[in-house]
Amino acid sequence: MTPAAAESVLRELEPSVERLLERHLAVAHDWLPHQFVPWSGARDFDGPLEGAAWQPEQSSLPPAVQDSLVINLLTEDNLPSYHFDISVRLGRDGAWGTWNHRWTAEEDRHSSALRAFIHARRAVDPVTLEHLRMQHVAAGWTLRWSTVLHGLAYATVQELATRQAHRNTGALCGDRVGEMLMARIATDENLHMLFYRGVFAEALQVFPDDAMTALADVLCGFRMPGAGIPGFQTRAARIAEAGIYNLDVHREHVVLPLLRALSVMRATGLGPAGRKAQDRIGLYEKRLETRAARARALYAPRNPDKALPLSP
């Protein structure tokens, strides 16, 4: 997409951004991260405060939940890269810029609260966590597609995927405070998804072929923003095995709801490029269903309640 084309997309969609931003501000509720941290159960760590070093047996959380917390937190930690990418793609002025700054302020609560919870509960090794944070954030993150429409499509899919990952992590953590915190963060992610989905729905009406192509590219090549975290594949496999996020979750709670909400397979008025992209999405959904069924069948003899990993 040329700079001129990008300007046209931003200009045409800005009225929708203004409307959806107003809707978001009307329903989003500010919350205080410090109120979701179990401070009374915290202890000093080793170091200048001469506390106790972390030991694996101090964590009461299941191993897969520990893995999920690490990936979720490090994903949230890379917020500077996401903010920069959005600023470059959408600009810093007008409704687009206002949204990006508001979204960033809301997202920043997540890493703040998650890290405090993890440290207070001694949920994971804090030294390893910090080393991973330095590696991951220092490496940065850039979306593989350069257009505005690809960015909007990716944000729509990713926000819903992140919502589900946080929600399921909380449901399986066996910790009342942790479940409350994960549910609170998931609520934010859902509202962010609704904003991006609303903008992208408008894009499908105004730029049907380009938007459908962008959505097909993103769905078929989707990778979580935390995929670059060192050791991601191993942790993701354990997370998937526990049922926190796997092929079934991705299909049932991310892909299919978005296809229905955006009326993707019923869209009309498409040109050749749009129809080709629509067909790609249909084939992708069928392949995803087949892969999910095969994974369930392969793993069922060992543990019928779990599914095989989601390939990023």
UniProtKB/TrEMBL annotation:
Keywords: Fatty acid biosynthesis, Fatty acid metabolism, Iron, Lipid biosynthesis, Lipid metabolism, Metal-binding, Oxidoreductase
Cited Gene3D superfamilies: Ribonucleotide Reductase, subunit A
SUPFAM superfamilies per the UniProt record, alphabetical: Ferritin-like
A GO term for molecular function: stearoyl-[ACP] desaturase activity
Cofactor(s) named in the record: Fe(2+)
InterPro entries registered for this protein in UniProt: Fatty_acid_desaturase-2 (IPR005067), Ferritin-like_SF (IPR009078), RNR-like (IPR012348)
Lineage top rank: taxon: Bacteria
Entry's EC annotation: 1.14.19.2
Keyword Hydrolase annotated: no
Record-stated family: Belongs to the fatty acid desaturase type 2 family.
Self-association state and partner proteins as the record states: Homodimer.
Protein name: Acyl-ACP desaturase
